[in-house]
Write a structure and sequence with these properties.
Number of helices: 5
Largest sheet: 6 strands, antiparallel
Oligomer: single chain
Structural class: alpha+beta
Distance between the termini: 77 Å
Shape: globular
CATH architecture: Alpha-Beta Complex
Helix content: 25-40%
Number of strands: 8
CATH topology: endopeptidase fold (from Nostoc punctiforme)
Order of helices and strands: HHEEHHEEEEEHE
Strand order of the largest sheet: 3-8-4-5-6-7
Strand content: 15-25%
Length: about 160
């Protein structure tokens, strides 16, 4: 190998090595933290479409308080198992202050006193409250409080988180 070839090889080697050391601008993204209420709602939404089963707490069947009970339990938050007892937990908030993750309570029975149905608020947009719950006819669904049936049966909202 003559000096000319050696020099050419040397220049090429320097070029290759210097090109490997270039830096690229790497954009960093902030880690998005997921709130407890987002997690609880996501847990409940996994049961959407499951059929109704009195006392049920699995994907084979679910009742209204069962879905709330399981959604919170997956986040290590223990609630009573039945809606009437759930209504005694947390802090009562006004409907206008309701937010995702809050519990929404209803009185749907014509006879008897008190709360007998619960849902979990999945969204509040421009005053429109949507909640997931289990109905005997349709199973686990998302409903709107603007529905006249639910609006009439509405009792209160409690905040757990």
């Amino acid at each position: 190998m003559n000096l000319k070839h050696f020099f050419l090889l040397f220049v090429m080697l320097i070029f290759v090595l210097s090109s490997c050391s270039t830096t690229k601008n790497v954009k960093t993204t902030k880690a998005v933290s997921i709130s407890k209420s987002d997690k609880v709602v996501a847990n409940a939404l996994q049961f959407k479409g499951v059929k109704y089963k009195y006392g049920g707490i699995t994907n084979k069947g679910m009742d209204c308080s069962g879905i709330v009970f399981v959604a919170y339990k997956k986040e290590n938050i223990q609630l009573p198992r039945v809606s009437k007892q759930m209504a005694k937990t947390g802090k009562k908030v006004g409907l206008k202050s309701a937010k995702k993750g809050d519990l929404i309570f209803f009185k749907t029975a014509k006879k008897g006193a008190g709360i007998n149905h619960v849902g979990l608020i999945v969204s509040v947009n421009n005053g429109q409250v949507n909640f997931i719950h289990a109905t005997t006819s349709k199973g686990v669904i998302v409903s709107s409080l603007s529905n006249p049936y639910w609006k009439k049966a509405f009792v209160k909202v409690n905040r757990i988180l």
